């Protein structure tokens, strides 16, 4: 099966444009970008795993609905290339897991760990995120 932006005949035609919708962020996940949102999550629940730290907080009813997620990697993770690779892997893990196990009205911040987030097998990374979410939501009800 070809990706949605690929032409049916497999050839690139002049004037063809890729789809207007971005495939980077799913509709259900809203990306955190403002520092105060990250700080609020840092003061709430946290659960560490071998490959990442997950911070989570239940938003107040007046703060809106939906699942919001942020990603961060400090310079301890490595140079810019290593940090970006770790954040890309965290974004993919969040897309795969938070749609299923994330709860509406919650903010999640995924923090990469040095030498581990970028090197850990992807299925294990997904399992780590699932474990962290189970711990956060089961103990905090």
UniProtKB/TrEMBL annotation:
Segment forming the signal sequence: none
InterPro entries referenced in this protein's UniProt entry, alphabetically: Ribosomal_Su5_D2-typ_SF (IPR020568), Ribsml_uS5_D2-typ_fold_subgr (IPR014721), RNase_P (IPR000100), RNase_P_CS (IPR020539)
GO MF entries: 3'-tRNA processing endoribonuclease activity; ribonuclease P activity; tRNA binding
Domain of life: Bacteria
Region described as Disordered: 1-20
Pfam families in the record: Ribonuclease_P
GO CC list: ribonuclease P complex
GO biological process, any: tRNA 5'-leader removal
Keywords: Endonuclease, Hydrolase, Nuclease, RNA-binding, tRNA processing
EC number in record: 3.1.26.5
Plastid as UniProt keyword: no
Any coiled-coil regions, as ranges: none
Catalysis: reaction(s): Endonucleolytic cleavage of RNA, removing 5'-extranucleotides from tRNA precursor
Top enzyme class: hydrolase
Quaternary structure, from the entry: Consists of a catalytic RNA component (M1 or rnpB) and a protein subunit.
NCBIfam families noted in UniProt: rnpA
HAMAP family: RNase_P
Function field: RNaseP catalyzes the removal of the 5'-leader sequence from pre-tRNA to produce the mature 5'-terminus. It can also cleave other RNA substrates such as 4.5S RNA. The protein component plays an auxiliary but essential role in vivo by binding to the 5'-leader sequence and broadening the substrate specificity of the ribozyme.
Family listed: Belongs to the RnpA family.
Protein name as annotated: Ribonuclease P protein component
Species this chain originates from: Ruegeria denitrificans
